[in-house]
Amino acid sequence: MRVEATGVSVTIDGTTILDDVSFTAADGRVTGLIGPNGSGKSTLLRCFYRIIRPQQGTVHIGEHDVWRVPARRAGQLRAVVAQDQELDNEYAVRDIVAMGRIPHQRLLERESTADRAIVDEALARARIEWAEARRFVTLSGGERQRVLLARALAQNAPVLLLDEPTNHLDIGAQLELLELIRELGLTTVAALHDLDHAMSYCDAVVLLHHGRVVAADDPVTVLTPQRLADVFGVRGATTTHPLTGRPHLVFAAPPSERELSR
Amino acid sequence: MPSTRRTDRTHPEAARAHLVPDSAVPLLIVLLTVAVVLAAAVAIAVGTVPVPLGDVVAVTWAHLTPGETERSLLYDQIVWDFRAPRVLLAGVAGAGLSVAGVCLQALVRNPLADPYLLGISGGASIGAALALSFVPAAIAGLGVSGAAFLGAVVSVALVVGLAQRAGRVAPGRLILAGVAVAYLGSAVTSYIQLQANPGELRGILFWVLGSVAAASWPDLAAPTVALVVCLLWLLVDGRRLNALTMGETSAAGLGIDVNRLRLGLLAVASLLTATIVSVAGGIGFVGLLVPHAVRLLVGPDHRRVIPVSLLLGAVFLILVDLLSRTLDRPNEMPIGIFTAVLGAPFFLWLLRSQSGAVR
């Protein structure tokens, strides 16, 4: 299912966070939202979560306007791996993954055999089934993200939305999670902080700056040295990764005044 | 990565932290239900004039079934007119305050949240203190309960109004607005107390600390109806409460209208607390302690926490009320003193035994 924002503008307390943002994420592809801190990546995702309602414009999943369908229906259309998980909760891993069935259950309906099978499968796909009886608080950061990914998979939604999924993870856990997300084959929109991750794992990227879309295309086309300088204030170049042979970004700080005067 | 291939169900942390296994929860609910009935029967039997348990049952049976039966008029009056409404009000208040505490702790995700978070007791005590002291004539039509209820409603409206931001309930602002209104309420109540004469002062102090001593059958109506209505809604929505405790974004991602759920929880907690406070005063600590104790017992799932909190809160307050009127006979102590004196050590013991089981 396609993910689409059309002319989205968001103003909070007089500050414009998003200004006429439009993008389309193609069906079955991984699309990265990139940009410096404060460029509006998270706010754009929060419009799809139904937490921030755009003052102008619409957000669609497939042909459904996210803000015009019932909340529960939205939970069947897209699953969310967010940044704000409450970490001191006492839930067991399986209980958290089973919450993914909420948008499919009627009031008072109990967990069915089918629900349990879906939860089992989600745990396995996120490779966290070994921890199903553990308490969430006892897991490492990478393991927790896989639990939240499993909960999202249990929602059986065609679209997966992620907000900086690799935040605070060590490098091994980061790469493992990104590989896993790619393997799932879902329509995925992820806000990513690490531009090289965007280069390696995204089919397309949307570059945001000051709440506007600067460019949207495949990563190699978008992440030119000129844009890296204009938007991020760094020198950057694309090389070939010595281990994978794929395009790889390298960065350097802008030249200092002493270097310039030399 | 090899580290993620472990199959460690026997890991020391693998066991759930709560004390009662999931499979034993239905049994716990049955036992607590029996405990509520037994505690109520004993509390009705014990007093300045003891009534044999057999007569308690006989009088209750006579009132609940049609037709005239032979019974002692003295026992009938003690059981049905004095003790039964009082014991039932203690039970309903304990249950309602505990459930309100569960709702507010889920709403603001703060362990210190209790039913008085919304400034309800502050507003209610201004109303009650005014009615009990120098302006009884002005609000004579309302009575103490009516004045307290009015004060509670005004303070909730104020707090919820202040906590809105761009049409959404912001939990952080809710806590701050509630604390501010509570302080304002206690300041005004203190001033009224200073101006009151000694007789009125005792009345106000008793009210502020909470008491079910003066309970009559009509007092029970509003809190009981509120409890039943709120419970029906909560039992249907326990799963959504679970999702909300994982965070706003998680809940929204799971297809829950977070703002509507928060407003619903605010309505439930306010309705329960305001109806109870207006007839029983500011009974403290129950709404803070019982939800925590229950989570230590049965874990965080609200589908278990809500019914167990309801029953445990009822048993606890019935027994505390019994103690408050038997320890220093024939004098009565405000119930709020005992909820803390008895509750705090029990709670600390639970906390210790839980950390022992985990670490």
UniProtKB/TrEMBL annotation, chain A:
This is ABC transporter ATP-binding protein. It comes from Micromonospora antibiotica. Coiled coil: none annotated. SMART domains: AAA. Keywords: ATP-binding, Nucleotide-binding. It comes from the Bacteria. CDD domains: ABC_Iron-Siderophores_B12_Hemin (cd03214). The lineage of its organism: Bacteria, Bacillati, Actinomycetota, Actinomycetes, Micromonosporales. One of its GO terms (molecular function) is ATP binding. Residues 3-235 form the ABC transporter domain.
TrEMBL record, chain B:
It is found in: Cell membrane. It is a multi-pass membrane protein. Keywords: Cell membrane, Membrane, Transmembrane, Transmembrane helix, Transport. SUPFAM superfamilies: ABC transporter involved in vitamin B12 uptake, BtuC. CDD domains: TM_ABC_iron-siderophores_like. It comes from the Bacteria. The chain crosses the membrane at residues 25-46, 87-108, 115-135, 141-162, 174-192, 204-236, 263-285, 305-323, 335-351. Pfam families: FecCD (PF01032). InterPro entries: ABC_BtuC-like, ABC_transptr_permease_BtuC. Belongs to the binding-protein-dependent transport system permease family. FecCD subfamily. This is Iron ABC transporter permease.
